[in-house]
Design a protein that fits this description.
Elements (H helix, E strand, L loop, with lengths): L5 E2 L2 E2 L2 E7 L11 H10 L4 E4 L9 H9 L3 E10 L2 E6 L14 H10 L3 E4 L24 E5 L4 H14 L3 E4 L11 E5 L6 H10 L2 E5 L3
């Protein structure tokens, strides 16, 4: 359970959609200006752009966000041998030496570079080989995606149960591929986060929880 503390008389809360795909992801219709406009309208404090297999692809989104005075944190989503993982704390595409690499190899590589890997929708059966209970074999995890707004209740419930057993905090995200999907779920952080380095630190500290938007 997230316990909020006070700083300067105010509670520190940041609402961040941790898993969003832009038009540069190859399968999304979300354009930079419309996603930022929608994020402001629904009260998000920041968005993590996790385009498929590329950090570099989303550079233009960050450029637009800077002009719009809105926080965009960039990462990537990688398709490992056992399903998808979210990568935070990379600054180039060197992590992508080919798809379907062993998931533990990706986790170890990103951690050595100072980043964090978070398994995304681990119980989603949309692939011939999905992570599922193999998540219990992984090492060096700080968090896992326990609520994904595009996945089924069954898949999210299994992820939530696994997170309890592993004593790993869960993140919430929309996995948005369209403006209508943005912010349907997000993560509430207790820490103020102003850049990707601080996001990685916050993920390691574990002071966050998933939240489902009230529609």
């Amino acid at each position: 359970m997230l316990i909020l503390t006070k700083k300067a008389g105010k509670y520190i809360i940041m609402k961040i959609d941790m898993h969003v795909h832009s038009i540069y992801s190859g399968d999304s219709t979300l354009e930079p200006r419309e996603m930022i406009k929608k994020a402001k309208e629904i009260g998000l404090d920041a968005i993590c752009i996790t385009d498929h297999h590329s950090f570099i692809a989303s550079q233009f989104v960050e450029d637009v966000a800077r002009k719009e005075n809105f926080k965009i944190f960039r990462g990537a989503e990688y398709h490992s041998e056992w399903g998808h993982v979210l990568i935070y704390g990379v600054y180039d595409d060197n992590f992508n030496s080919g798809r379907y690499l062993p998931i533990q190899e990706i986790i170890d590589k990103i951690q050595k570079e100072g980043g964090v890997v978070v398994p995304s929708h681990p119980y989603h059966r949309g692939y011939s080989r999905y992570l599922g209970d193999n998540i219990f074999k992984l090492k060096n995890l700080y968090a896992m995606e326990t609520y994904n707004a595009r996945r089924t209740d069954e898949e999210n419930n299994l992820a939530q149960k696994a997170s309890v057993m592993l004593k790993l905090p869960g993140i919430g995200s929309s996995d948005a591929h369209s403006v209508e999907e943005l912010g349907r779920a997000y993560t509430v952080f207790q820490d103020h986060i102003s850049n990707i380095k601080e996001l990685v630190t916050a993920l390691k500290r574990g002071r966050f929880k998933p939240e489902v938007a009230k529609i």
